[in-house]
Amino acid sequence: MYKRGTSSTNSLAQSLDAILHPPIYNSFPPLRPSVHLSVICSVTMRRLVVCSLLMLLSVSVHCQTQNAICEIFTKTKEDGFQSLVLVGLAQNLPNSELGDTEPLIKEAVAMAVKCCSDAPSEDCNWDMADLFRSALCSSESLIMKNNLTHCCEKTGAERAECFVDHKSKDLSLTVEVPAADQCGDFYKDTKAFIKRFLFTFSKHNPRMLPHVSMLISKDYREVLTKCCGDAEAQTCLDNKKSAFQHGVRKRVHDLNSICIVHKNYGEGVVKARKTIEYSQKVPQASFQEIVNMVDQVVATYPPCCSGNMAKCIKKRKELGDRICSDESLVSRTVGLAACCKENITQRGACVTKMKPDPKPDDLSEHYDLHADIGEICNNFTKDPYHTLRKLIYEVSARHPESSQQLILRYSQMAEQAFLQCCDKEDHPDCVKTSLADLDLHKNITNDNNEFKLLCAAETATGEDKFERRMFVYYTKLMPQASFDLLHRVSETVHGIVHDCCHNKPGHSDLHCIEEKLTNTLDVMCHNNDPSSINPRITHCCNQSYAMRRPCVLAMEPDTEFTPPELDPKNFSMGPELCNPQKKEAMVSMKKLLYGLVRHKITITEDQMKTITSNYDIMKDKCCAAEDKASCFKEQAPKLISESAELLKV
Predict the structure, then answer these.
(1) Which of 187, 193, 443, 525 could form an SS bridge with 541, CB 3.0 to 4.6 Å?
(2) CA distance 422 to 430
């Protein structure tokens, strides 16, 4: 089987990190000697822009035997190469049209072909981010069209920072799926149709890693290929729309969450999270290998989270120069070896989803903290941070089934015991007493059982009813929140539970659900002013990263909330509910529940069941009526008045 810590530290750190956080391309076997773009590129402005972009994509490989542009072109093929150039242009030129980029893309391909010729030039590997910006600033039409005048008046680092700040900080969470009448255009020129989508999506998401945008465009193409060939194309597109948009939101959410943690909690928490993740996935690695790996990964977050894609990609490329080329490392792993066989744009997603490798034979089942307490306390008094990282490493490698948050809570309690006891003569007994109630294995079992019950509830009640219950639950906790916020939270939570509970066999519900629920709370606390909701939400948002979810879970309904009066005019129920799409009916039902729950925070489960049942009866009755509008106009006020009477009980 495996032994721990038997490979090169730098090799492991560079290789796994580059796979887990890939640039838009990775390193590959040597192909041709270095080339000189100066021979290929003319001095015309348009060609200067293209050359600069290509050099920017090459992100300073600085190797003696590789031609970076030819390397990218060879590995991504012509279509993939065009997509990379398209994304780069779209993200930097938000006001330009697709037609503005097409000549540049054609020239980029021509240059790449020349780079792969028998007589290439020598300067392909320059770091040309500054040249790219200078080239853009030399084009008056590009400056004016994209409002870059203020950036181009700056120089050096200030100009680079201005280009980054110029990008929108928002990420587009909604991607429209076309109607069936566009299937003709899709079939007529599929490549052009998908290119338009990728260009538009990249303009709306200028801070997203290019390979992620390309993966989303691939998913988009698969939806259209499936549905446009279906006899009921529109029905198919309607059914696929929600799942596709959910997938886009999930990708965006996952990318955003680590940046929020980095900003709100700092490097310490991010390093702790990454220490857990890598220790769980590669338990063969030594502690020092994990530390080096984590420190290098976290160093990429400031530029990547700020939207500085040039610097971000460069840093990741520097870490990934030897990706998958170290046979000794790859041969020691299962998951990493499989991911190395994936297409370069798929590798990052592969490692993110990678299951933990089998534990080494020499690794004990549980970590006995008390057996090493003398050494731990000695080290803790000298370097508390390093000692806690070592504890996290030892626990995580043995418990891949645990969530990161649970291990962090364990380490926090251990830290308190060390602070209290390590300076005392009887520190072994003191620590043992302080941690008498701390049973990690028991906590993992209990939390896993809790989430299994959640999964069972979703299965038993059905998806729609489960989402209603989540909406009611969160409305009771924070009735001051807007309907839109509560709708998004309940929809997101339901999506998390559904995805995690229906994951492949062998996947830990605890690991999946708690990670994603915590990330959702982080986003909610980050994007909204907690003080505008209520003091208890503010309290939970101010908790440590690991304690946010337990804090919210311990909250009780806000019975101090002053309920508003019920006004039938605030409820919209009409023929639109008869649309075969569930979304409209779900939103209508939630708006009804929003008004009723806020009117009576202590609404019971039985009362809610009666109201939702009456709603379904009314909907079925009016949707079957010949005059649907008249039916809803008569029945909706009755439903509201009957519900109000029920809540007086």
Answers:
(1) 525
(2) 8
Region 31-56: what's the mean pLDDT?
49
Angle at the Cα of 34 (from 33 to 40), degrees rounded to 5? 120
Q: What letter represents residue 316's amino acid?
A: R
CA distances to 174, 183, 507, 640 from 251, rounded to whole Å, are 12, 26, 19, 39
pTM, entire model: 0.77
* Whole-number pLDDT of residue 623: 92
Start-end of H helices in 59-189: 68-92, 98-115, 129-137, 140-145, 149-152, 156-166, 183-188
Tell me, what amino acid is at 41? C
- Pairwise CA distance, residues 512 & 448, whole Å: 11
Return the exposure string of 62-92: e unless at least 16 CB atoms fall within 10 Å of the residue's CB, then b.
eeeebbbbbbbbbbbeeebbbbbbbbbbbbb
Q: What is the rounded CA–CA span in Å between residue 343 and residue 23? A: 13
Tracing tokens 């809540």 back to the chain, one arrives at 647
For the record, the structure tokens of 127 come out as 């770091």
Q: What is the DSSP letter of 155?
A: -
H/E segment holding residue 513: helix 509-527
Structure-token match 């203020």, residue found: 150
Place of tokens 């680590």: 258
